[in-house]
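Record 1 of the preview.
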Amino acid sequence: MVQDGAENDVPDARFMASVARREEKGSDVNVASHLLIDVLTGVIDAAVVISNDSDLAFPVSFVRDRVPVGLINPTKGYRAGKLAGHPSDGVGNHWWYQLQPTDWYEHQLLSMIGARISKPSEW
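->
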């Protein structure tokens, strides 16, 4: 039974819960693998990684020794400390950016694309 601050029963109380489940999807492994393969096979001369996943710290650090890396944080939070570095690390010319709400608002889909494709109104 739920009680209020004076320890009186509140029989009609409602419980509300919010559950956030974080599941490993393997996307960090896929990003790391492709990043390393691309650098080691020499098909890229720079990389931009859009992530704030600290699991990418080692591959990003490894790649910074070989090509310039831009790191874009798509979250509201601070950049993961393990992804930090200096612009001059390794080959140098690295940069960091945190997406801002204006980045999203200024780059929305058009309301109508062609004659038959429209953006959902809730977007």
